[in-house]
Amino acid sequence: MFTEGSVALVTGGSRGIGRAVAVDLAAHGVHVVVNYSRSEEQAKELVARIEADGGSASAAQADVTDEEQVREMFRALRSEHGRLDVLVTSAGVTRDRHLVVMSPAQFQETMDINMNGTFLACREALRIMQHQKRGSIVTLSSASGLDGGFPGQTNYVASKGAIIAFTKALSYEAAPHNVRVNVVAPGFVETDMTRVIPAKLKQGYADRIRLGRMGRPEEIANLVTFLASDKASYITSEIFVANGGGLG
To answer: For 7-242, which CATH class?
Structure first.
């Protein structure tokens, strides 16, 4: 699925969907650079797990909202590996709060991490990939970015909808360089973000999903790996919703 020596960077790779993506890419022979902001212990544990399973990985600290930190992470990656074949932008947060009591800072924090972090990582990745004349970028949005989400999510939905629009636009700029850009929009998935939802409420959500359950991070990772791989060589500028056939 990947050429020998392929290198991937997964932002927010130490937890949740990003972690599952890192594991799956490594299982397919890709060297995975696991980006983290504060979860150093989790990132190092993940690298050790991948290596124990026969894969190749390393950890890279950078706050995706900090332009200079992101630039330095990509400079170090290029210096060490000389290439970048795959970027997966998985870093993200939720800061749910009804709009009438939401502060500008709460709105901006969500936009900074989810959207601006995607922008900075994609910009630096494309600078490498356009010279290689190859590469694949997969951004992580949310089904909420398409269907409007739930009350209290104006900031989250705005950021995830922006990622979809950004990815579609970026695909036009990337295509002449043989760089593919797609977006995956998961529905409800069992991660740290959703574990805090009360059990009764989660069951209510699950009852509205055609498959009758929440998704697993590994199921999203399978799709991301496919899109990142040579198996998807004629797919770009597309939105892939993985929500079990229902609730966003």
So the answer is: alpha beta
